[in-house]
Write a structure and sequence with these properties.
Strand order of the largest sheet: 1-2
Structural class: mainly alpha
Helix content: 55-70%
Largest sheet: 2 strands, antiparallel
Distance between the termini: 109 Å
Oligomer: single chain
Radius of gyration: 44 Å
Strand content: under 5%
Length: 1686
């Protein structure tokens, strides 16, 4: 039973199959090909029986009915499950709706029940309906992708030959098994409305969203089926039976929308037929490589194929949509003509096509034109939504039209002649005021209109219209312009087809009747939609006017156009002002036909100027045409507002050019298109047209065009602040006031003939506002420059806002955007109007289908949200400038307005409205992205973030909260590609790009809010219970489906990081790692950062780590993937950051496990961290540094390194930095200062240069070089500017890379430190621990010593090496020392290594000696930073302490010490180590000695302290006293002596207990420790005396400054304790500070006397001199204290 039921599993989403086909088509890797082959073999029966459900079964139906009593077996090994009655009823309903087997319906419903957490507002039945159609959609989409990937003739995908052969063979087999008939049957059976009605009857539909989802799924299934046929026809030669079946289907089942346009599925089947009945190539361009393809086509080789299709298309029959047949007839007639033109030489050996059929081509085309084929194609095919986005649809119609014009020239000429005749008839009837005959055919006019519709829009930039333009036969035309395609570009002149098409354009304009004038101009405008086409069109029209006399001007020329405009202006113009233009005399009129012609001329001018900058400049500068003057003059004439709108549209395109825009501003001001000066500044020009004419007509073309003109001027970069200069007080304020007060604030209350025009008016205004705000830079002077006269609203009047500006306005110097900002930061009508996004969200929540209205409404909402976002970004600076200026303007910050009360709803629900846009991320990703960014900005501070959470949780219902949460979850769950700065799409509104940005911004929002006080946005979106503290939330109980819980963003993030994929490394090895690391590295980085933030936060750490450990085993699994790799080398920064965040999270997890003593989990995780493939022996390179006696490994024993070292090898220590700037015009120092002024730090501490700000600074500098003599300098300056900007970008990228590498090192170090210190020591044996540490240290040292390592990266590695040395030292300090040969040291020193330790062995220390050798070589490298040297000195010091003989803990007498020294044997292990270490150090000769001595004498204080300590340790093992001799010989001892006087003042200042202990004290102590060690030998003591150290100490003033204290302070301390304390306590009191300085000097004196003896009079004299020099603070004070006790 179970096996039968599993075989019926036809509804399940074939996501694996669909994902595999997409992977194969997009990536085409060897692995994807093999995976697809396996899936195709497994799913072939599903393709052969496409979308066929297993029928219902009466026996199984009874079993299901008895499921509530007997039970039903769900899984094979489980007992029968008792089902609820409601469940059984739902399953049977699903079975009846879909005609589905009952057991399959049960399984479908169970699956739906399991998936309900992913659909929080749906029941299991509604989810089951979605799953059913989603499964069918995936199966059909997989089939479509397979057919699209075939090897064929129309297109080629980037697929390997093996893969193409596989899918071609598979789909050929499907085709032979009747796939075409199956698809056509399904298209006939599956009807969207019928399926929706069937579901509605059985209550299988939910809310509006569910209805739309189901409708879209069914429509997509139909569309995929139809496109599969299209791909079959486009890529292969379909048999006659299949083509005939498609024709019969279109005959009976063609479907149209409510407006008469063909449905997308019918359109796809139609174009499948059009491709099937067309020849594969252009006969005029047949070449050797496609002759075989042509001759193998069944139209050429199979006579029955030709006759069969011909009979189907010419027979008399009743078609459901006659235009479909006429379209196919037109294509068929062209095919017949092309077949007739095939050269006979090519057909040798084959049966030529039937001549009888070929001769009927004109009859067939006549049949098609009888049915108005051109009109049908224009209205019902080209007019379909999205048609111009389908390249191969466009190319097919383009091919049919061009082949018709080229190959059926006589027929086209006949259409033209007939068109002329029809035009004369129509003119005759019009002149007699009679209705024209209804039977008149307008074939030529409709052909021109079809060409206009076909080429008028080119979103894919195919520029198919360029085939219509080439050099004319007229030699004068060849010189018309350099942009006309010259003949020499072609080997034998222009192609015949191109020449014929251009001839068609020229001849169509000759002797054109008036009624064809407008269609012809519109066709020219459509064909000029492209840079090259527009240029040639301009030259053609310019040539037509320049080669005729003034009395015989060609009507198709610019001369004629502008002459006519001047005549109209002269006829219509009068001296009355513009605002009285409606009251014109009766004799000054213009007919509707003339208006239509002028509008066509303006449309043509707009297109030419838009696409050709040279034509734009020529038209503007032509004095004879006087284009701007006459166009502005026509605006003052009584002409319809639609014509005025078109005229302003021409001016708008002229304003694109910055040089023209400045002059056009003054012309516009002079023409008073908007009355800005005089007495009547409120009721004239465009303002009057708006209020009296456009409002009455309920259409606003002139107003929209005028606002677009202002926007174009703003986009051009013209200085709008100077408009009106010399005529009135200059400034943009009158224009902005008109747009805001008269247009924008009133647009919601006006009446519109078309509802979408309401939102188009709003969009025009918002584009201007957005441009002004985007380019605005606030400055305090703006608040003092002008009196603000805007009346914002009733609640805050203009006088209240401007009371600080004084009574008299002064000359405005503020930018145009400044008054607009005052509107924005004000709770008034402007903000209420701007909040039109509420209309958008209401429409989107209704899930209505009104494409035209939706497009304009969504555009307006998008612009509003862009304005809000840009205003929020500028807000802080604007408010700061206002405060700095001392202005008393009363403004409200925008974040407070958005978080404030919505007066319409009475709730603070603006944020809720914004969040609801995220729900519609699939259909409108741009709105979702802007909403997420606005919410993120509102969450930038803790206070406003709390208000955001409160608004979401208190201002809406629980259902709305769940929808918002699920919207964010769906954003993260959506699959979207990732684009970086280098490969961003040209169209930044691309849906996939926007979806990728949405996912990243959601994660950035979560990361930012994690550390904010609870409750915060992150805890809400991540599924925490907001009613209790986060650390008390049980995330295990919030798993999807448990206790009604839904998915949260945390589940989505973990899913993103858990999906696996394979990638090939540089060595060619395939490794498994998270798929997001490969495909979406930035998203993966943010996901790992979020997990780390949650683990590091004190409130969320415990529940999140517990959840990761118990539910996902996240840390353990993620560690398996390390190290990460990405095939794209440009993603190295992201890969490093991913591993950095993961390693930091691992460190926190290890620390948490150790803290809670979870030994098993800690040991399990540690095993992965230190996973070894074998013994971590030293590499051959390192072993070569050892001699035979100390070698502990050979090359044969070399194995792979540990997991941590493999991860470390991902890091490349080499780093390239940008080269210094080399500039021609700019001063480098000034440029560097400008770059620094544009730099700021982000939240990670990375210093970024704001390239946009830098560009503005440089552009302002270049703008000063505008004179003609500065042309060359300006060119050089522009080149410099490009170099500077590129250098700034390179600097930003370099800083990002260095930061990523440093972060990776930090994470790696954290994990290593925690693994070595916090975790239980017994998890790793002592020997293994030493081995791992030494191997790791050796690997780090060898890596850091590489010649190309960057110093910025070697410093952290040196710190890690120091940490490892400390751990190695700790492994030798396990047990207390009990060796009898220990001896007593009388004096302590800092870092003296007195810890008890076990006796070490040569075998354990030998590998460490190898590492130390490398460390010393690293230390000797030139140019090493002092920070690195500091770490290396400390590491060397720790090593020397490891090798140092343990000291006795008890104080013994000197004689006892001497006896101990005598008892020590030469064969003692420590003596051997001392000799080996001394030999190792001496191998580096004077270079190492000189380095240490120089660091002792100068450099950073910490480095000096450690250098002194190292020198001290070396002195103790330097029995030949080589180092002492070197120091004396080279003057270093003398330098040390002089340093006492140099540091006297700083040591004197250190006695102040209120200050921190200065660094000079530590240097002094370590220096005295070294001198004490030197003084232990006769030669060293004499060297100290000879260098004059005691003399220098005698002269120091710091020893004179003994602080005053109570007499009883030392009364209980004997003199011996004062001189030889056991420990030196570093305290903060003045006495303690003084002891730190005095006692080392006394110890030095004691050492000298003990070493040289009483017989050495010089030493005694010097010591006595020292004591006498400081007799009061040293001797008398001590004796005074001592005498009290005596």
């Amino acid at each position: 039973e179970v096996n039968d039921r599993m075989d019926l599993n036809n509804w399940s989403p074939y996501k694996d199959l669909f994902a595999a086909t997409q992977e194969f088509a997009l990536r085409n890797s060897q692995a994807s090909t093999q995976q697809l082959r396996s899936l195709l073999r497994r799913n072939k029966p599903e393709f052969l029986s496409l979308l066929k459900n297993t029928p219902k079964n009466a026996e199984q139906r009874e079993k299901v009915k008895n499921g509530h009593t007997v039970g039903l077996v769900i899984n094979e090994n489980d007992p029968p499950k008792i089902l609820e009655k409601s469940f059984i009823e739902e399953a049977l309903i699903i079975s009846d709706i879909f005609d589905l087997n009952e057991l399959a319906a049960v399984d479908l419903l169970l699956t739906g029940e399991q998936q309900t957490p992913n659909y929080p507002s749906y029941s299991r039945g509604l989810v089951a309906v979605l799953l059913y159609w989603d499964g069918r959609r995936n199966l059909v989409s997989s089939l479509r992708t397979l057919v699209q990937s075939r090897r064929g003739t129309t297109w080629t995908l980037d697929i390997s030959p093996e893969g193409a052969s596989m899918v071609t063979a598979f789909t050929d087999d499907l085709l032979r098994n009747g796939m075409t008939q199956q698809i056509l049957g399904l298209l006939s059976k599956i009807k969207v409305e019928a399926e929706i009605e069937k579901l509605a009857i059985q209550r299988g539909l939910g809310d509006a969203k569910h209805r739309k989802q189901v409708r879209d799924l069914i429509a997509e299934v139909r569309q995929s089926l139809a496109e599969t046929l299209f791909y079959f026809a486009g890529q292969s030669r379909l048999p006659l039976m299949d083509v005939s079946s498609m024709i019969h289907y279109l005959e009976a089942n063609s479907e149209v929308e409510s407006d008469g346009k063909l449905t997308p599925s019918t359109l796809a089947v139609l174009f499948a037929v059009l491709y099937a009945i067309s020849l594969p190539c252009d006969l005029s361009a047949v070449q050797e490589n496609n002759v075989d393809e042509l001759l193998q086509h069944p139209l050429v080789t199979d006579p029955s194929y030709l006759s069969g299709i011909h009979k189907l298309l010419v027979k008399e029959s009743t078609w459901k949509v006659v235009g479909v047949r006429s379209c196919m007839q037109l294509a068929w007639s062209v095919t017949l003509r092309l077949l007739a033109q095939i050269p006979t030489s090519l057909l040798s050996g084959t049966t030529p096509p039937s001549g009888e059929i070929l001769e009927q081509d004109e009859m067939v085309v006549e049949m098609s034109m009888t049915d108005r084929v051109f009109h049908f194609i224009k209205e019902n095919i080209v007019g379909c939504p999205g048609f111009h986005s389908e390249e191969f649809y466009l190319r097919r119609i383009h091919g049919i039209i061009t082949d018709l014009i080229v190959n059926m020239t006589l027929k086209v000429k006949e259409m033209r002649n007939h068109g002329d005749e029809v035009a004369r008839i129509l003119m005759l009837h019009m002149s007699q005021n009679e209705e024209p005959p209804a039977s008149l055919r307008k074939d030529f006019q409709q052909l021109l209109e079809l060409i206009t519709a076909l080429y008028g829009d080119d979103p894919l930039t195919l520029e198919l219209s360029s085939e219509y333009w080439c050099t004319a036969d007229n030699p004068m035309m060849a010189d018309a312009g350099s942009f006309i395609v010259p003949s020499h570009r072609f080997h034998h002149g222009p192609p015949q087809k191109q020449a014929s098409l251009f001839k068609f354009i020229r001849q169509s304009g000759d002797l054109l009747p008036p009624l064809l004038y407008v269609p012809y101009l519109n066709m020219l405008a459509a064909l000029a939609s492209g840079p090259q086409s527009a240029r040639v069109c301009y030259e053609l029209l310019h040539y037509n006017g320049s080669n005729f006399s003034n009395s015989d001007v060609n009507s198709m020329s610019f001369d004629h156009f502008f002459t006519s405009c001047h005549r109209y202006y002269a006829h219509l113009h009068h001296d009355r002002p513009l605002h009285d233009s409606t009251h014109s005399p009766r004799n000054r009129t213009i007919t509707p036909k003339e208006v239509e012609g002028l509008r066509a001329v303006m449309n043509l001018l707009t297109k030419v100027i838009k696409y050709d900058d040279i034509a734009c400049i020529n038209i503007y500068e032509n004095q004879q045409w006087s284009a701007c003057g006459v166009l502005c003059g026509l605006l003052q004439c009584p002409v319809p507002v639609k014509l005025k709108g078109d005229i302003i549209a021409v001016l708008t395109q002229l304003a694109r050019i910055p040089e023209i825009a400045s002059g056009l501003m003054q012309i516009t001001e002079s023409a008073q298109i908007l009355v800005t000066s005089g007495d009547n500044t409120q009721g004239g020009g465009v303002s009057l047209e708006l209020e009296q004419i456009e409002s009455r007509e309920e259409s606003y073309p002139m107003t929209m065009s005028f606002v677009n003109l202002l926007t174009a001027m703003a986009n051009s970069g013209a200085n709008l602040a100077v408009i009106g200069e010399g005529v009135r007080s200059p400034g943009f304020d009158p224009y902005l006031t008109f747009v805001v007060e008269s247009v924008f604030l009133k647009f919601p209350t006006r009446v519109y003939a078309k509802l979408e025009e309401k939102w188009e008016v709003a969009s025009c205004c918002l584009k201007l506002f957005n441009k002004l705000i985007t380019t605005y830079q606030p400055h305090p002077d703006h608040f003092k420059s002008h009196k603000i006269n805007f009346s914002f609203d009733n609640s805050r009047t203009g006088s209240q806002i401007s009371r600080d500006f004084g009574s008299n306005p002064v000359k405005a110097i503020h930018p145009p955007a400044f008054p607009l900002m005052l509107y924005v930061y004000n709770e008034g009508n402007f903000f209420k109007t701007v909040s039109l996004w509420t209309n958008a969200i209401k429409y989107l929540d209704s899930y209505a289908s009104k494409p035209t209205q939706e497009r304009s409404l969504v555009e307006a909402a998008t612009l509003v949200m862009q304005i809000l976002l840009n205003s929020l970004l500028t807000q802080d600076l604007f408010m700061s400038c206002m405060r700095e200026s001392g202005s008393a303007i009363l403004l409200t910050s925008l974040d407070k307005l958005l978080l404030g009360l919505n007066q319409k709803s009475g709730k603070a629900d603006y944020v809720v409205t914004l969040a609801r846009f995220v729900i519609h991320h699939v259909s409108h990703p741009h709105l979702s992205l802007l909403a997420i960014r606005i919410i993120s900005h509102l969450c930038s501070s803790a206070a406003t973030q709390r208000e955001v959470v409160t608004a979401i949780t208190k201002s809406c219902s629980v259902a709305t909260q769940l929808k918002i949460l699920h919207g964010f979850v769906e954003v993260l769950d959506t699959s979207a590609p990732e684009f970086d700065r280098e490969n961003q799409p040209q169209d930044l509104t691309d849906a996939s790009y926007l979806m990728g940005q949405c996912r990243q911004d959601v994660l950035r929002l979560l990361v930012h809010c994690v550390d904010m006080p609870h409750p915060n946005v992150s805890t809400f979106l991540l599924g925490f219970d907001l009613s209790k503290p986060p650390n008390r939330t049980s995330l295990q109980g919030n798993d999807p489906g448990i206790l009604g819980s839904n998915r949260s963003c945390l589940h989505s993030v973990l899913t993103i990081l858990s999906l696996e994929g394979s990638v090939d490394t540089q060595e060619g090895v395939s490794v498994t790692q998270p798929l997001s690391v490969i495909e979406t590295p930035k998203l993966s980085e943010l996901s790992y950062q979020l997990v780390h933030k949650l683990a590091a936060n004190v409130d969320t750490s415990a529940p999140v780590l517990r959840y990761l450990r118990s539910s996902f085993d996240f840390i353990y699994k993620q560690l398996q993937y390390l190290p990460f790799s990405n095939p794209d080398p440009n993603k190295s920064k992201e890969v490093l950051m991913q591993q950095a965040w993961l390693l930091k999270t691992v460190a926190i997890e290890l620390y948490s496990l150790a803290l809670k003593r979870q030994r098993a989990n800690a040991e399990r995780t540690l095993k992965v961290v230190r996973t070894l493939a074998g013994d971590t022996s030293l590499t051959q390179h390192s072993m070569s540094l050892l001699d035979a006696s100390t070698s502990v490994a050979t090359s044969s024993q070399r194995k792979e390194l540990a997991k941590m070292l493999q991860t470390f090898d991902v890091l490349d220590l080499a780093q390239e930095f940008p080269r210094p700037l080399t500039l021609e015009q700019f001063v480098p120092s000034v440029v560097e200062e400008a770059i620094r002024s544009c730099e700021s730090s982000n939240e990670h501490g990375i210093i970024y240069c704001d390239v946009k700000m830098l560009h503005n600074i440089l552009e302002a500098s270049c703008s000063t070089l505008s004179a003609a003599e500065d042309a060359n300098r300006k060119h050089l300056a522009l080149l410099d500017m490009q170099n500077i900007l590129q250098n700034a970008i390179d600097r930003n990228q370099t800083r990002e890379t260095v930061h990523a590498k440093l972060s990776f090192l930090t994470g790696w170090r954290h994990t290593l430190e925690i693994a070595l210190t916090a975790c239980p020591v017994d998890l790793l044996s002592k020997e293994m621990r030493q081995q791992v540490l030494i191997s790791t240290l050796q690997h780090l040292v060898n890596t850091a010593r590489s010649s190309d390592a960057t110093p910025e990266l070697t410093a952290p590695i040196a710190g890690i090496a120091l940490m490892i040395i400390v751990q190695i030292r700790a492994t030798f300090l396990d047990a207390p020392a009990t060796n009898a040969q220990q001896y007593l040291f009388e004096f302590d020193a800092i870092l003296d290594g007195s810890e008890a330790k076990e006796k070490i062995s040569l075998t354990s220390i030998a590998p460490l000696q190898v590492v130390i050798r490398g460390l010393m070589e690293w230390l000797l490298q030139a140019g090493l930073p002092q920070k690195v040297r500091t770490h290396l000195y400390a590491s060397l010091l720790y090593y020397l302490q490891v090798c140092q003989k343990p000291k006795e803990t008890n104080q013994k007498s000197k004689s006892r010490r001497t006896v101990g020294m005598l008892l020590s044997s030469d064969n003692d292990i420590y003596s051997r180590l001392s000799r080996d270490n001394l030999q190792l150090i001496q191998e580096y000769g004077d270079a190492f000695m000189d380095l240490v001595c120089k660091d002792v004498c100068s450099g950073h204080s910490v480095c000096r302290v450690l250098a002194f300590a190292c020198l001290d340790a070396i002195q103790q093992i330097d029995t030949p006293k080589t180092w002492l001799q070197y120091m004396v010989k080279n003057g270093y001892m003398a330098h040390i002596a002089h340093s006492f006087s140099q540091e006297d003042q700083s040591l004197l200042a250190s006695l102040n207990p209120n200050q921190e202990t200065p660094r000079s004290v530590f240097i002094y102590e370590q220096k005295m420790s070294l001198l004490c060690s030197i003084a232990e030998t006769q030669g060293g003591a004499r060297a100290i005396i000879d260098s004059g150290i005691l003399t220098q100490l005698s002269e120091c003033n710091f020893l004179e400054m003994r602080p005053s204290h109570d007499d009883n302070e030392y009364s209980c301390l004997p003199l011996f304790f004062l001189l030889f304390p056991d420990t030196t306590t570093i305290g903060s009191s003045a006495a303690s500070r003084y002891q730190q300085l005095l006692f080392p000097a006394l110890r030095l004196c004691s050492a000298l006397l003990a070493t040289l003896g009483q017989s050495h009079h010089e030493s005694s004299a010097l010591v006595l001199q020292f004591l006498l020099s400081h007799i009061n603070p040293v001797v008398n004070s001590v004796l005074k204290v001592q005498s009290i006790h005596t």
